[in-house]
Amino acid sequence: MKLLFALVTGIVFGTGIAISGMMDPAKVLNFFDLVGTWDPSLAFVMGGALVVTFVGYRLVWRRDAPLFGGRFQVPTGTEIDGKLVGGSALFGIGWGIAGFCPGAAIPALGIGRWEVALFLVAVVAGFGLRRLLAPIARNKVAP
Predict the structure, then answer these.
(1) Cβ neighbours of residue 14 under 8 Å, at least 6 residues apart?
(2) Other C-beta atoms within 10 Å of 45: how many?
């Protein structure tokens, strides 16, 4: 049942991404082009996502536990540090250059463009690079 629910959720998410135009890098890049061919329509997509998230969280937090798990998996960190800011900046820069974010690129694989596959390969390579470099960063001695 858990896998079926995950599949249905993924289909709904992918359909929403496709309908909203978030799979089209040109539309996304035009959203960021404030002085050129600016397309404000994605602001409504993101605003709608915020409303759904706000309502969804209010409903979910009324429950004692998730439907398909023992407990809620909630991040506990509240500190804004260099890793958070750097990762957010890198995400935004990548989104602005490529016109894709990982969430939209996965359903965009269905359109059959090689750029989407290349982007996702780069994302996976970045995950791997981070995994390789994390032990080195943890063992770094401060001067």
Answers:
(1) 106, 107, 110
(2) 17
CB atoms within 10 A of CB 17: 19
- Closest to 97 in 3D by CA, of 44, 33, 34: 33
Question: Dihedral of the CA atoms 79, 98, 51, 57 (nearest 10)?
Answer: -50
| pTM for the full predicted model | 0.68
How far, in Å, CA of 97 to CA of 115, rounded? Answer: 12
Widest CA span in the chain = 53
Contact assessment for residue 123 and residue 102, using Cβ atoms and an 8 Å cutoff = yes
What is the Cα–Cα distance from 130 to 101, expressed in whole angstroms?
18
Q: What is the pLDDT of residues 56-96, one digit of tens each?
A: 999 999 998 888 878 888 888 889 988 889 889 988 888 88
